[in-house]
Write a structure and sequence with these properties.
The chain is an alpha/beta fold. It is built from 8 helices and 12 strands. Helices cover 40% and strands 23% of the residues. It has a 5-stranded parallel beta sheet, with helices on both faces. Helix 1 crosses helix 5 and helix 2 packs parallel to helix 3. The protein is globular.
């Protein structure tokens, strides 16, 4: 299989090198851009970029503008890097279609894990069987085993658990879960998530504790 291409956009060469080194070790092909204009040119000339890691503060064209330009034509996953951990920035990022948001300084290992999680979610890195903390999730068979025993899950419960496992350690809002698991902008009551989570936890027995509640926001799956 060809290496997946990741476009890393940052005006700091040291930051690009750090990210590139870690991604290359995980067998990704890394393309670098040092400003927003260059990033847009490269994205539209290379064509098969699987994911973009994009800094916010850059000369010539900032990360927000790059995101706007690319989102007019493509749904390529975008991870935004920012020095500011500001809720307003984060909300703007999600409005523009940013998939993940990471504040500097960050752990390169965590960044690589987020890249892999997003690519798994978008089926670039499809893993048919995933094993985590005594749970075996088989996508092809649409089956979940806990400690060797098959657990009877509804389609939505299975998809919900798959989404949690693909996003281990990430705090997920109810709205985000609905948009990704239900596959459309859900205008009903976000508490429908709570009902599904409650049923899922109960079917998972002691492993249900992996699904942590984040009060006022949503959930996080953590082993």
């Amino acid at each position: 299989m060809d290496k997946l291409k990741v476009l890393v956009v940052d005006d700091e060469s040291r930051m690009r090198k750090l990210v590139k080194d870690f991604l290359t070790r995980q067998n990704f092909e890394v393309i670098e851009a040092e400003n927003g204009e260059q990033a847009v040119d490269i994205f539209f000339s290379v064509k098969d970029v699987a994911l973009i890691i994009l800094d916010v503060m850059m000369p010539k064209m900032d990360g927000w503008q790059v995101c706007r330009e690319i989102r007019q034509y493509s749904k390529v996953p975008i991870i935004m890097l920012t020095a500011k951990s500001d809720e307003k920035d984060e909300l703007l990022g999600f409005e523009l279609g940013v998939d993940e948001y990471i504040s500097k300084p960050f752990s390169p290992k965590i960044l690589v894990a987020r890249v892999e999680a997003i690519l798994r979610r978008t089926n670039f890195l499809e893993e048919e069987v995933t094993e985590v903390g005594g749970i075996v999730l088989d996508k092809a068979a649409h089956q979940v085993k806990i400690e060797g025993e098959i657990i009877d899950l509804s389609i939505k419960e299975f998809e919900l658990l798959s989404y949690f496992i693909a996003n281990q350690g990430v705090a997920l809002s109810r709205e985000r879960i609905l948009n990704n698991v239900w596959n459309y902008d859900y205008f009903g009551d976000a508490r429908t998530i709570d009902t599904h989570v409650k049923k899922l936890r109960s079917k998972m027995g002691s492993k249900g504790d992996y699904i942590k509640t984040i009060w006022g926001m949503g959930y996080k799956f953590e082993v």
